[in-house]
Structure formats: structure tokens, C-alpha cells
Design goal:
mainly alpha; rod-shaped
């Protein structure tokens, strides 16, 4: 009778161990599955962040090139405007010089006409 009770006890213990082992394996499988799902979810976010970062890097490079080109073009425009302003100043100087020459020529012409006509005779009335 004791041996039967011992065998029953050992059988129940073995069943419990097997049941515990089965539950432990199921728990490990569930934890592994959860961990994989979480890692996959995080990897999707990380992958998207990496793709976005690469796009941003490419956009930054493009923007730097365009900004450099714009700066060069702006410098050329500034140079052209400065040259244009200088040309306008020179035209203004030439215009003033031409007016001065014209006034001098009128003075000379008037003097020559005066000399050519001779002194003006007073008219008797």
C-alpha cells in the first residue's frame, strides 16, 4: 500500500513537472514571440528614421550646392550693377563736360561775332 501511494505520488509529481515544463516552454515561446514582435515594430520605426535621415542628408547637400550657386550668381549681379553705376557716373561726367564745352564754344562764338562785326555804331535818331 505504501509503495502504491509512493508510485501515485511520484506519478502526480511527474505529471506536475511535465505540466510545469510545458507551461514554461509555452511561456518562453510567448515571451520570444512578444520580444520578436516588439523588435520588429521598433525596427520598422528605426528603418523609417534611417530612410528619412538619408533623404534629409541628400536634400541638405542639394541645398548647399544651390546656395553656393546662388551666392556666386548674386556676386555677379552685384558686380554688374556696380559696373553699370560706374558707367552711369561716367556718362554724367561726359554730359557735364559736354555742357561746359558748349558754353565755352558759345562764349567764343559770341566773341568772334563781336570781333567780326566790329564795334556797334551808335544809331542817331
Amino acid at each position: 500500500m505504501l509503495s502504491r501511494l509512493l508510485k501515485e505520488h511520484q506519478a502526480k509529481q511527474n505529471e506536475r513537472k511535465e505540466s510545469q515544463e510545458k507551461r514554461r516552454r509555452e511561456a518562453i515561446a510567448a515571451a520570444t514571440s512578444l520580444t520578436e514582435a516588439l523588435v520588429d515594430h521598433l525596427n520598422v520605426g528605426v528603418a523609417q528614421a534611417y530612410v528619412n535621415q538619408r533623404k534629409l542628408d541628400n536634400e541638405v547637400k542639394t541645398l548647399q550646392v544651390q546656395a553656393s550657386q546662388f551666392a556666386k550668381q548674386t556676386a555677379q549681379w552685384i558686380n554688374m550693377v556696380e559696373n553699370f553705376n560706374q558707367a552711369l557716373k561716367e556718362i554724367g561726367d561726359v554730359e557735364n563736360w559736354a555742357r561746359s564745352i558748349e558754353m565755352d564754344m558759345r562764349t567764343v562764338t559770341t566773341a568772334l561775332e563781336y570781333v567780326h562785326k566790329g564795334p556797334v555804331q551808335p544809331t542817331s535818331s
